[in-house]
Amino acid sequence: MDYDLLWSNLNAELRFKETESGGLSAALAGLEKHQRKCGFIQDDLQEVKRLVFKDPQNGALNFRAQVNPKRARRKGGAGIKTPPPGEERFNDGCFLCRENIRWQQNQRQFGFEITTSNDIYNAWMNPFPLLPNHVVVAARKHIPQAFKLFADDREGLELNRILSDLCETAQRLPNHIGFYNGVGAGASIPEHLHFQFFQRIPEDPLFPLEQRSFELSDGNGTPEMITNYPISVVRWRGEFKNIVSEADVWVRTWADENVIDRNFLTCNFIATGSPNSGDIVLYFVPRRRDRQFWNGDKGIVGGLEILGELVLASEEECALVENGIVDYGFIEDALSAVCAPLN
Question: How far apart are the C-alpha atoms of 2 and 255, rounded to whole Å?
Fold first, then answer.
């Protein structure tokens, strides 16, 4: 059957789930079920081991490690790189463009269209997930991941728009956690705007970052600042539109006042919604593009690592756990390697 017709039929089914059975979360659960059934998702997470390491000085604090050897296979790609006869390669074969995905994945990968106040996105299931219901929410148009950080920037999207779309999606997925990785801060495909979301695990829903203490702000858009963490983090909490506006102004002011060479500045944003209200929690993590890895020139630090869960996928990384090298101090040092000061 024609790919576009299958797409339309699936989206109609998922849209019904969204409106009748529990919102966007229900639709994405349906998408995951479909993508498992057709064989696109390559990992059922049954072999993943999640380890918790407590601070030897304070048992209330912890970091986590995820031993996920199948994740290492994602770099090889599950699809083909050269289009078959009659197909065209768009945007240098970008893996997030629907026009390419159709032939790259032999018509096995399908997405679900999500409309925000600003744009239309396609939600794609991750074939090698980190956590349950791991989706990549990618702009339908092929637009870059980077945003305008300075007033004289000529390229990139407006920061307000990226924050608005990230937070609006998080608001619709209160049992998920979402993040935006900047260029040089974990973005896997910097040529195409995308966010990542995954579902919280019911038995262990809060990540180490979320359990840390923050200094209270003095209001007027000033964020709270983390007090005991190896990476600089600030946090806003409150109503969606206020949070987006306050963060937009504060981050651009921070960039203008920062002493680091502007060409090195990048960041991560993490957003969560509340199941009981429309409030949003938004985290901002300043980063340097030349400090992307926790393991020399390997081990990218993205949103999940920022949350306090280090992903170990390669044979070398998994061996660190087997040999008893990974502990609370090891993860603390690993995250410290990518820390960028706020000023």
Answer: 48
Q: Token pair of 289, please? A: 């593009």
Is this structure's pTM higher than 0.70?
Answer: yes
Q: Is residue 111 over pLDDT 70? A: yes
- 3-state SS, residue 263: helix
Give residue 42's pLDDT: 83
Mean pLDDT of the chain: 93
> Which tokens sit at 66?
């995820």
Query: What single DSSP character describes residue 96?
Result: T
Strand order through the sheet with 58-67: 49-55, 58-67, 309-312
Q: Any idea what the Cα angle at residue 47 is, between residues 107 and 35, rounded to 5°?
A: 20
How far apart CA 60 and CA 232 sit, in angstroms, is: 20
The pLDDT of residue 1 is above 80? no
Strand partners, 181: 268
* Closest C-alpha among 329, 337, 232, 341 to residue 295: 337
Report the C-alpha dihedral over residues 173, 177, 182, 184, rounded to 10 degrees. Answer: -150
45 token code pair: 């997470």
Tell me the backbone φ, ψ of residue 109, rounded to 5 degrees.
Answer: -95, 125
CA angle centred on 322, ends 317 and 325, rounded to 5°: 70
Number of other residues whose CB lies within 10 A of the CB of residue 196: 23
What CA–CA distance (Å, rounded) separates 37 from 174?
26
The pLDDT value recorded for residue 75 is 58
Q: What confidence score (pLDDT) does residue 117 get? A: 94
Q: Estimate the crossing angle of helix 240-257 against helix 159-172, to 10 degrees.
A: 140
